[in-house]
Design brief:
- The complex is a heterotrimer of chains A (373), B (365) and C (551).
- Chain A has a 6-stranded mixed sheet with strand order 6-7-8-3-9-10, sandwiched between helices.
- The model of chain A has no long low-confidence stretch (mean pLDDT 92).
- Chain A has 2 domains: 226 residues, Rossmann fold; 133 residues, OB fold (Dihydrolipoamide Acetyltransferase, E2P).
- By secondary structure, chain A is α+β, with helices and mostly antiparallel strands.
- Chain A starts with a strand and ends with a helix.
- Chain A contains 9 helices and 20 strands.
- Chain B has 365 residues and is of the alpha+beta class.
- Chain B has 2 domains: 220 residues, Rossmann fold (3-Layer(aba) Sandwich); 124 residues, OB fold (Dihydrolipoamide Acetyltransferase, E2P).
- Chain B contains 9 helices and 20 strands.
- Chain B has a 6-stranded mixed sheet with strand order 6-7-8-3-9-10, sandwiched between helices. Chain B has a 5-stranded antiparallel sheet with strand order 13-12-11-14-20. In chain B, strands 15-19-16-17-18 form a 5-stranded antiparallel sheet, with no helix packed on it.
- In chain B, β4 and β5 form a beta hairpin.
- In chain B, α2 crosses α3, α5 runs parallel beside α6 and α8 crosses α9.
- With 551 residues, chain C is mainly α.
- Chain C has one domain: MetI-like fold (Orthogonal Bundle), CATH 1.10.3720.
- In chain C, strands 1-2 form a two-stranded antiparallel ribbon.
- In chain C, α5 packs across α25, α21 runs antiparallel to α22 and α22 packs antiparallel against α25.
- Chain C starts with a helix and ends with a helix.
- The chains are: A alpha+beta (373), B alpha+beta (365), C mainly alpha (551).
- Chains in contact: A-B, A-C, B-C.
- The site of one adenosine-5'-diphosphate (ADP) has 11 residues of chain A, from β2 and α1.
Chain lengths: 373, 365, 551
C-alpha cells in the first residue's frame, strides 16, 4: 500500500534552485494537496516522485522502498497532467487500454481492467471518441481512468483541473475526491487554487520558493495558520499593525493599533511593548450599525467599495487609521442583510477569538507576504 | 462617448453555429460582462465587434454609427487578446507606445505618454524589458496598458484575467474595474468565471451555445435566474426534477419523489406539469422544524473558507450540496434539512430533463 | 504572380513539352538511332535502375542514422549539442562538388583514412561495391552524408513541435522508452519520416556535383543528363530528364496529399498487436531500453556523422597543406598547388573569375528570390489556393537539378524563346527557381511557428492600417525566417552543380570548376579549390550566425 516519503529533496536547474530540501510524508490512503504560487516548484516535486525527474540530492521512498533511481515505468504510479495529454492517435478506449497492454498483460485481462475502470468513472460511453472530440472535463476523466488502469494505487495529479472552466472545476473536485476515496487510493494533487485545495484535501502542503511553509489539515491551516504568510495565502487576511499594550487574563491581551485604538485579542507568548500584527479574515469581520457602538473591538471607517458576490457582499472599508480592510458579509448568516453603499460610514468589528496574532515580521509585512522569499 | 449596440448578430463556422441572433446594448460608461462556458461564442463576438471577423447576419453599431464596413483600425475599439498577443520583437514601452505612434505622435511624446500609462499599471520599472522576460501577471498588465493606450472609449477584454493565479486574480479583478471607471471607459469584458463577472460587472449577459439567455445586474441574475442552466451555472443551485401537485397564488407544491414535497412561493406553474426545482446550497437549514423538511444521510463534507460544504444523499435518492458554518456534521450520520419556500426556485422543464441541463453546465455528468 | 509563373513555375514544367514538340528528335536519338538502334534506351533504363538502387539504399541508411540523431537533437541536453547540429547540417551548405572531392580523398587515397591508418593506400577502391548489390560504396557514402540532413532536420523539427508530455505520460503508464517510441512517437512522426525520406530520396536522385566527382565509371541518371547535354544529345537528355521529373512527382504527390489531408497523424494498422508479437516486442524493448545500450546507439550515430562529414573536411584541408609546393609522394613540383595555380596550368585566373561568377550569381539570385518569396509566403498563408501553390513550389525542391537546369535551358535558350544564351544570366534564372521555394518554406515555418496572425490582428485593433502592420509587425517578426532562408539559398546557389553545369555556357562558376579539374585530373588545383569553396561557405555561415545572434 502506497506511502510516500521524501527526504531532503533538492533540485537545481542551472542557477535556479527549484527545490531546497523538501521533507514530506504522505500516509497510505491520504489525499494530499500541494498548494503554492506558480513557479514555487510544485510540478518539479511531483515529477521527482513520479521518476520523470531525478533529484540532485535526497531520496524518494514509496512503500518504504528507495525508488530514487528507479525509472518511472517501474514505480507503479499514475500521473495526471494539466494538459490532459491523452494520446492523440488513439481513441478513449485505446488510451485506457495502453497501460495494461504495455505491461504485457493478456488481452482478455487488459480489456477487463479497462472496461471496469471506465465503468467506475462513468466514461465508458465515450470509448470510441478521439481526444479532439471530447470536452475538457470528460477528457480529463479518461486521462484519470488511463492512469488507474495500470493498477496504480498512488495517483499524482498536476493541476488536473487547471485547464478546465471554473464551473466544471467545482463539479470535478467532488468527483475526484469521491473516486480516490472510493477506490482507496493515495493521491498527491498539485494546485495553485486555495479553494480547490481546501475542499479536496485531507492535508495541504503549502509551498513557497521551493520550501514547505506548512503541512496540515485544511481546517487547521485556516483557523490556526502557523505564520502570517500561510494565513494570507490560504484565504486573504487583513493585517493591522500595533503593539501589546497590556496582558489581560485568560490568555488575552490588549493591542494598541496604529490608529491609537485598542483592541482585545488572544495572544500568548508576547510581552508588553512587543510589536505585533493582528490578522483578521474578511469573513470574520462584521459591519455594525452606529446603534451597536458599545461592543468591544470596534473600528470606524468608510465604505470605499461595495460588490455583490452572490453568496456574500464584499466591502472595502478605509479605517480612520488610513488602513484599508476587506469585509465579507455572507448572506446566509442572518435573515436580514443590510446592504451598505460606497461612501457610507460604518463600524467594523471582530471576535477576539477569530483574530490571529503574530510577532511583527522582521523583514516587514510586504516581504513576509510576498510569494518569493 | 462610447456606446455599443449589437443587432441580431449571427455567425456560423462550417458545422458550428457560434452565435445565434445576439442582441445586446452597452451604454456609455458601462462595465458589461458576457459570461459563458468555453465554446459559448464569446471570442467570436468580440472579434466581430472589433472587425476582425465578419458576421453572417446582423449589425454592429458603435456610438450609434453602423460600422460593419469599417476595417478594425477605424472602429474606435481596442481589443485585449486572451493570450495577450504582445509584440515579441518590441520592448514593453514600444508595445504600449505602438498605437500612439500609429497616430503620428513623435517618438518622445509617444514614449512619455506610454510611460504614464505604464505607471498606472505599476510597470514603469520594466519599460525596457521584452515581453518574454515578464511573468504572466506582468504581461497581462502590459497588454492592458497597451489596450488603454489606444486612447479609445470602448475596451473589449477577452478573458483578461484567465492566466493569473487564483489569489492574484481575486485581488486584481476589483482594481481592473476601478481603473476602467476612473478613466470613464465603456468596457465589454468576457469570461467563463462567475466570481470574476460578479466582481467587475455593472450588468452581466449570460451566453450559452451562441445565445444570450439572460441579461441583468449581478443581483438580478443571482436572485432571479431565468432558466435552470443559469441557476446551476451562476449559483451552483441544487436541481431536482418534480411534478406540480398543487398550484395557487404564490404557492406551488412540487412532488420530488420519495414522498418528499416541497413548497415554493413562485408562480406560473400548472398542476401536473413537470418542473425543475432549484435550491442554493446556502438556503438549506440543518435541523430546525421549518417548512419543507427533507431527510437524508451525510455522504461527505469538505471544508472551504470558513464553512463546510456537506454532500447529503436524500432519502429520495437525489444528492444535494449544503453550505453551513456548523462544525458538528459527521460523515454517515442522518440529517434533516429545511428550506424556506421563498428560497425554492422553479424552472421550466426542458426536453431531456435534468441531465441535459447538467451536461450543458459541466459538460460531464 | 506573373513573375512567379514565368520565373519559377514555368521552367519546372517546361521539360514536359520538349519530348512532345521535338518528338522526332527524341525518337531519333532514343528509340531508332540508325547507328546504335535502341542502345540509348537501354542505357537510360540501366542508369535509372542504378540510380534507384543507390537512392533507396541511401535513404534506408539515412533513416537508421537519422532517427536516433533527430531524437537526440530534439530531446537531449548535453554539451556540444549545437556543434552536433551544425555538423549534421553542414553538407546542406557546403558546395557538393567540393565535398565530393573531399570524400574521394578521404576514402580512396593515401591522404585520407588509409594514410592515417598507415596502409599506404586508400581504404577503398573508387569502384568498390557492396558485394551482391553492385552499389558503389563511395557513392553511397557521399549520398548518405549529403541527404542525411534532410531526414534529421525534418524529424527534429517535428519532434521539437511534439509536446514531450506524451512521452512522460507513456512512461508513467509503464512503457519503457523504446516501447514509448514505437507506440507513441512513431505514429506521430510518421508523416515527417515520409516527407524527410522523400526529400532525401529526391535529392539523392538528382545529386550531381559530388556524384560526378566520385562516380568513376558508373553514372547515375542525373549525371547522364549533364553528360548528354554536353554531347549535344538534347533529345536523350530531355527524355531522361522528363522521366526523372515524372518519377519524383509520382512519389511526392501521393505523400503530400496523404499528409496534408489528415491532421498529420497516421494510424498504423495494429499489425504487431494482432499477430500476438506484442509481448515479444515488449520484452525485447524492455531489454534494449537499458541506459547503456541507448547511449551506445547514440555514440555510434555521432561517430558516423564524424566520419561522414568531419573527416573529409579535415582531410581536404590537410592535403592542401601537404600538396602546397609539391606532390608529397613523388616530390614533383608539377604536382603542387602553387605550380598548378601560378605555373603553366595557370588555374588562378580561372579560379578568380569563377569566384566572381559564383558570388555574383548567388547574390543576385538570392536577392531577387527574397523579394519574390515574401509576397508568395503571404499569399500561401492567406488564401485558400495557397496550399496548392505550396505543393507546386515543392517541386523544384525535389526535381533532380540537372533536369531542372535542362528545362530552363530549353525554355529560355535558343531552342525555344531564344532570349538568353547560356551564361551567368541563365545561371541566375535557374538558381531563382530553386531559391524561391527554399526561402518560402523557411518563411512559412517561422510564420506558422509564431502567432503572427494574432499580432497582426492586435496591430489592426490598435489603429494600424495593413501596410503599417506589415512594415512594423509582420516583417520584423519574420526577419529571422527571411535571413535563414537567404543564407540557405545563397550557400545552395554557391555549391549547386547539376543545373549550373547545364546552363553555364562559358561562365564557369567555382562549383563546376572543381568538377572540371577532377575530370582533367588536376588534383592539386581541385584540392585547393574545394578547400577554398568549403571554407568560404563555412565562414559565410559563421558570419551570418554571429550577425543574427547578437539581437
Ligand atoms: N526544465 C526546467 N529548466 C529550467 N528551469 C526549470 C525547469 N523546470 C522548472 N524550472 C524552474 O523551476 C522553478 C519551479 O518550477 P515548477 O516546478 O514548474 O513550478 P510550479 O509547478 O510550482 O509552477 C521555476 O522557477 C521554473 O522556472
Ligand atoms: N475559426 C473558427 N473555425 C471554426 N470554428 C470556430 C472558429 N472559431 C470559433 N469556432 C467555434 O465557434 C464556437 C465558439 O467559439 P469561441 O467564440 O472561441 O468561444 P469562447 O470564446 O466562448 O470559448 C466554438 O464551438 C468554436 O469551436
Ligand atoms: Mg506547475
Ligand atoms: Mg475565447
Amino acid at each position: 500500500m502506497p506511502e510516500v516519503k521524501l527526504v531532503n529533496i533538492v533540485k537545481r536547474f542551472g542557477n535556479i534552485t527549484a527545490l531546497r530540501g523538501i521533507n514530506l510524508t504522505v500516509e497510505n490512503g491520504e489525499y494530499v494537496c500541494i498548494l503554492g504560487p506558480s513557479g514555487c516548484g510544485k510540478t518539479t516535486l511531483l515529477r521527482i516522485i513520479a521518476g520523470l525527474l531525478k533529484p540532485d540530492e535526497g531520496q524518494v521512498y514509496i512503500d518504504g522502498e528507495d525508488v530514487t533511481h528507479k525509472p518511472p515505468e517501474y514505480r507503479g504510479v499514475g500521473f495526471v497532467f494539466q494538459s490532459i495529454a491523452l494520446f492523440p492517435h488513439m481513441n478513449s478506449w485505446e488510451n485506457v487500454l495502453y497501460g495494461p497492454t504495455v505491461k504485457g498483460l493478456d488481452k482478455s485481462i487488459s480489456h477487463r481492467i479497462a472496461r471496469e475502470i471506465m465503468r467506475t468513472l462513468k466514461t465508458i460511453d465515450y470509448s470510441g471518441l478521439y481526444p479532439g472530440e471530447l470536452s475538457g472535463g470528460i477528457a480529463q476523466m479518461i486521462a484519470i481512468a488511463r492512469a488507474l488502469a495500470t493498477g496504480a494505487k498512488l495517483l499524482l495529479l498536476d493541476e488536473p483541473l487547471g485547464a478546465l472552466d471554473p464551473r466544471i472545476r467545482v463539479d470535478l473536485r467532488y468527483e475526484l475526491r469521491r473516486i480516490v476515496k472510493g477506490l482507496g487510493l493515495t493521491a498527491i494533487h498539485v494546485t495553485h487554487n486555495q479553494e480547490e485545495a481546501l475542499t479536496i484535501a485531507d492535508r495541504i502542503v503549502v509551498m513557497r520558493s521551493g520550501m514547505v511553509e506548512a503541512y496540515d489539515t485544511p481546517e487547521n491551516l485556516y483557523w490556526h495558520p502557523k505564520n502570517l504568510f500561510v494565513a494570507d495565502f490560504i484565504g486573504k487576511v487583513n493585517v493591522l499593525e500595533g503593539f501589546i499594550k497590556k496582558a489581560l487574563t485568560g490568555g488575552k491581551a490588549l493591542v494598541e493599533l496604529t490608529g491609537g485604538i485598542s483592541i482585545e485579542v488572544y495572544a500568548k507568548g508576547f510581552s508588553e511593548g512587543d510589536k505585533v500584527v493582528v490578522a483578521v479574515r474578511p469573513e470574520n469581520f462584521e459591519i455594525l450599525d452606529r446603534s451597536e457602538a458599545d461592543k468591544p473591538n470596534l473600528l470606524r471607517g468608510v465604505v470605499t467599495r461595495a460588490r455583490f458576490m452572490g453568496d456574500y457582499y464584499r466591502y472595502d472599508v478605509t479605517l480612520e487609521s488610513g488602513e484599508r480592510v476587506t469585509v465579507n458579509t455572507p448572506l446566509y448568516r442572518s435573515e436580514k442583510i443590510q446592504v451598505r453603499k460606497k461612501g457610507e460610514p460604518v463600524l467594523v468589528r471582530f471576535d477576539p477569538e477569530k483574530a490571529l496574532v503574530y510577532a511583527y515580521p522582521k523583514r516587514g509585512i510586504e516581504r513576509e507576504l510576498s510569494i518569493e522569499v | 462617448m462610447g456606446s455599443l449596440r449589437l443587432v441580431d448578430i449571427s455567425k456560423r463556422f462550417d458545422r458550428v453555429e457560434a452565435l445565434k441572433d445576439v442582441d445586446l446594448e452597452i451604454y456609455d460608461g458601462e462595465y458589461a460582462v458576457v459570461l459563458g462556458p468555453t465554446g459559448a461564442g464569446k471570442t467570436t463576438l468580440l472579434r466581430i465587434i472589433a472587425g476582425l471577423l465578419r458576421q453572417d447576419n446582423g449589425e454592429v453599431y458603435i456610438n450609434e454609427v453602423q460600422v460593419d464596413d469599417l476595417p478594425p483600425e477605424e472602429r474606435g475599439v481596442a481589443l485585449f487578446f486572451q493570450n495577450f498577443a504582445l509584440f515579441p520583437h518590441m520592448t514593453v514601452l514600444d508595445n504600449v507606445a505602438f498605437s500612439l505612434r500609429v497616430k503620428g505622435l513623435s517618438l518622445e511624446e509617444s514614449e512619455r505618454k506610454a510611460m504614464d500609462i505604464l505607471r498606472m499599471v505599476h510597470l514603469d520599472h520594466r519599460a525596457y524589458s521584452y515581453p518574454r522576460e515578464l511573468s504572466g501577471g506582468m504581461q497581462q498588465r502590459v497588454a492592458l496598458a497597451r489596450t488603454i493606450a489606444a486612447g479609445v472609449d470602448i475596451l473589449l477584454l477577452d478573458e483578461p484575467l484567465s492566466q493569473l493565479d487564483a489569489k492574484i486574480k481575486s485581488e486584481i479583478q476589483y482594481e481592473l474595474r476601478d481603473l476602467a471607471k476612473s478613466l470613464g471607459l465603456t468596457v465589454l469584458h468576457v469570461t467563463n468565471d462567475v466570481e470574476e463577472a460578479l466582481a467587475v460587472a455593472d450588468r452581466i449577459a449570460i451566453l450559452n451555445k451562441g445565445e444570450i439567455v439572460q441579461v441583468g445586474t449581478p443581483v438580478e441574475i443571482m436572485e432571479n435566474p431565468k432558466t435552470a442552466f443559469v441557476a446551476s451555472f451562476i449559483a451552483e443551485m441544487n436541481l431536482m426534477e418534480g411534478v406540480v401537485e398543487e398550484s395557487s397564488e404564490n404557492r406551488v407544491v412540487v412532488d420530488i419523489g420519495g414522498g418528499f414535497k416541497v413548497e415554493s412561493s413562485r408562480n406560473g406553474f400548472k398542476k401536473g406539469e413537470l418542473v425543475i426545482v432549484g435550491v442554493k446550497p446556502s438556503s438549506f437549514k440543518i435541523g430546525g422544524d421549518g417548512k419543507n423538511g427533507l431527510t437524508g444521510k451525510v455522504e461527505d463534507w469538505v471544508f472551504s473558507f470558513g464553512f463546510r460544504r456537506v454532500t447529503v444523499q436524500l432519502d429520495n435518492g437525489s444528492r444535494v450540496s449544503v453550505k453551513t458554518e456548523r462544525k458538528d456534521i459527521e460523515r454517515g450520520s442522518s440529517i434533516s434539512l429545511t428550506v424556506d419556500p421563498r428560497d425554492v426556485y422553479l424552472f421550466p422543464y426542458l426536453k431531456g430533463g435534468l441531465r441535459t441541463v447538467l451536461a450543458e453546465v459541466s459538460g460531464v455528468f | 504572380m506573373v513573375a512567379l509563373a514565368v520565373l519559377v513555375l514555368l521552367p519546372t514544367v517546361f521539360l514536359a513539352s520538349f519530348p512532345i514538340v521535338y518528338f522526332d528528335e527524341v525518337r531519333y536519338e532514343v528509340f531508332e538511332n540508325p547507328l546504335v538502334g535502341d542502345e540509348n534506351l537501354r542505357m537510360i533504363i540501366s542508369v535509372l535502375l542504378f540510380s534507384f538502387k543507390l537512392s533507396i539504399s541511401a535513404v534506408i541508411i539515412d533513416l537508421v542514422l537519422g532517427i536516433p540523431l533527430a531524437f537526440l537533437l530534439a530531446r537531449g541536453r548535453f554539451p556540444g549539442k549545437t556543434l552536433l547540429e551544425t555538423l549534421v547540417t553542414l553538407p546542406l551548405v557546403i558546395p557538393t562538388s567540393g565535398f565530393g572531392f573531399a570524400s574521394l580523398l578521404t576514402w580512396t587515397t593515401v591522404s585520407g583514412i588509409g594514410g592515417w591508418l598507415g596502409l599506404g593506400r586508400g581504404i577503398l577502391e573508387t569502384s568498390a561495391t557492396i558485394p551482391g548489390t553492385g552499389i558503389p560504396i563511395l557513392m553511397l557514402i557521399v549520398h548518405v552524408s549529403l541527404t542525411l540532413p534532410y531526414v534529421v532536420r525534418t524529424l527534429q523539427a517535428k519532434l521539437v513541435e511534439l509536446n514531450p508530455v506524451y512521452e512522460d505520460a507513456s512512461r508513467t503508464l509503464g512503457a519503457t522508452s523504446l516501447t514509448t517510441f514505437r507506440k507513441i512517437l512513431l505514429p506521430q512522426i510518421l508523416p515527417a519520416v515520409f516527407s524527410g525520406s522523400v526529400l532525401a530520396f529526391a535529392r539523392s536522385l538528382g545529386e550531381t556535383g559530388a556524384t560526378m566527382v566520385v562516380s568513376g565509371v558508373r553514372i547515375t541518371a542525373a549525371i547522364a543528363v549533364v553528360r548528354w547535354e554536353f554531347e549535344f544529345k538534347l533529345g536523350a537528355a530531355a527524355f531522361l530528364g522528363l522521366i526523372l521529373v515524372l518519377i519524383t512527382w509520382l512519389i511526392i504527390l501521393p505523400v503530400e496529399l496523404l499528409l496534408t489531408g489528415k491532421q498529420g497523424i497516421i494510424k498504423p494498422p495494429p499489425l504487431i498487436y494482432k499477430t500476438g508479437l506484442e509481448k515479444v516486442f515488449l520484452k525485447l524493448e524492455s531489454k534494449l531500453s537499458k541506459r547503456g545500450l541507448r547511449n551506445l546507439l547514440y555514440v555510434v550515430c555521432i561517430f558516423a556523422v564524424a566520419i561522414l562529414v568531419v573527416i573529409p573536411v579535415i582531410v581536404v584541408g590537410e592535403s592542401v597543406v601537404a600538396y602546397w609546393y609539391a606532390d608529397p609522394y613523388t616530390g614533383k613540383r608539377e604536382g603542387g598547388v602553387v605550380y598548378q595555380l601560378l605555373g603553366p596550368p595557370n588555374y588562378l585566373p580561372a579560379i578568380l573569375r569563377a569566384t566572381a561568377i559564383s558570388f555574383t550569381s548567388a547574390f543576385v539570385s538570392t536577392y531577387i528570390s527574397v523579394f519574390l518569396s515574401i509576397p508568395l509566403a503571404y499569399i500561401i498563408e492567406r488564401y485558400r489556393f495557397g496550399r496548392v501553390l505550396r505543393a507546386i513550389l515543392k517541386i523544384p525542391l525535389v526535381v533532380p537539378s540537372s533536369a531542372l537546369g535542362l528545362s530552363t535551358l530549353l525554355m529560355w535558350g535558343p531552342k525555344f524563346m531564344g532570349l538568353i544564351t547560356p551564361g551567368i544570366w541563365l545561371i541566375i534564372l535557374t538558381h531563382i527557381v530553386f531559391s524561391v521555394p527554399v526561402i518560402v518554406e523557411t518563411i512559412i515555418a517561422v510564420y506558422e511557428g509564431s502567432d503572427i496572425k494574432l499580432y497582426e490582428d492586435a496591430a489592426r485593433t490598435l489603429g494600424a492600417n495593413p501596410y503599417y502592420t506589415a512594415e512594423k509587425i509582420s516583417l520584423p517578426v519574420l526577419k529571422e525566417g527571411i535571413i535563414t532562408g537567404a543564407i540557405l539559398s545563397f550557400t545552395h546557389s554557391l555549391g549547386e552543380t547539376g543545373a549550373t553545369m547545364i546552363v553555364m555556357g562559358s561562365d564557369i562558376p567555382i562549383s563546376a570548376l572543381v568538377v572540371n579539374m577532377v575530370e582533367s585530373l588536376a588534383i592539386p588545383a581541385a584540392l585547393f579549390t574545394s578547400t577554398y569553396l568549403i571554407f568560404i561557405s563555412m565562414a559565410l555561415i559563421f558570419v551570418f550566425r554571429l550577425a543574427t545572434r547578437r539581437k
